[in-house]
Specification:
two-stranded antiparallel ribbon; about 25% helix; alpha/beta; 7 strands; single chain
C-alpha cells in the first residue's frame, strides 16, 4: 500500500486549465516521451489546436547515457513544426530530479532556438537535483526516493498512476 491516492484524470483537468493559460499565439505543445507525449497529445486535442504536438526524447542527452545506453523511446523525437522563435510549452508527467527535463531541453535546442520554453507537469514529487522548476504543476507530492511514480494510459486513453 502506498498511502498516496492520485486521481490522474482529475489532475489532467487541472493540467488542461494550466496549459490553456500558458499557450500563446504561435505557441506549440511538446511532450517528453512517453508520459509527457501522451499528455501533450490529449492536450492538443482538448485545447482545440490544429495538427500534432511535438515529442522529444531525452535519451541522447541524459547524463547517465553511458550506463543506460539507447533506451526504448530514444528515437521518438518528432517535431512537426519549426522550433526557431516559437513559444514552447514542454509537457511531462512527473518532475523529480530535473535531469530528464534538462536532457529534453537540450534535445529541443538541437532543432532550433525557441522564443521561450515553459514547463507544465502533472505531478511534482520533489527531490530536485538541478535548478529546474515547472511553470505549472497540477499536484505536488512527497515520495521517498526509493519509490517510483509513473503515468499509465489504458486502451481508451484514460490516465492512471502506477506507484512502485
Amino acid at each position: 500500500m502506498t498511502g498516496i491516492d492520485l486521481d490522474a484524470e482529475a489532475l489532467y483537468e487541472g493540467l488542461l486549465a494550466g496549459v490553456r493559460g500558458l499557450l500563446q499565439a504561435e505557441g506549440a505543445l511538446v511532450g517528453i516521451w512517453s508520459g509527457g507525449a501522451w499528455l501533450a497529445e490529449r492536450l492538443q486535442r482538448d485545447c482545440g489546436l490544429a495538427g500534432e504536438p511535438g515529442v522529444v526524447s531525452s535519451a541522447l542527452h541524459r547524463d547517465d547515457f553511458s550506463r543506460r545506453g539507447l533506451t526504448a523511446g530514444a528515437d521518438h523525437t518528432r517535431l512537426p513544426f519549426e522550433i526557431e522563435g516559437r513559444r514552447i510549452v514542454l509537457v511531462d508527467d512527473v518532475l523529480y530530479t530535473g535531469r530528464t527535463i534538462r536532457a529534453a531541453i537540450n534535445e529541443l535546442y538541437d532543432f532550433g532556438r525557441p522564443a521561450s520554453v515553459s514547463l507544465a507537469v502533472l505531478v511534482d514529487r520533489g527531490g530536485r537535483e538541478l535548478p529546474i522548476e515547472a511553470t505549472f504543476v497540477a499536484a505536488r507530492i512527497e515520495l521517498p526516493a526509493s519509490r517510483r511514480l509513473s503515468l499509465a494510459r489504458d486502451e481508451t486513453g484514460r490516465f492512471s498512476f502506477e506507484i512502485g
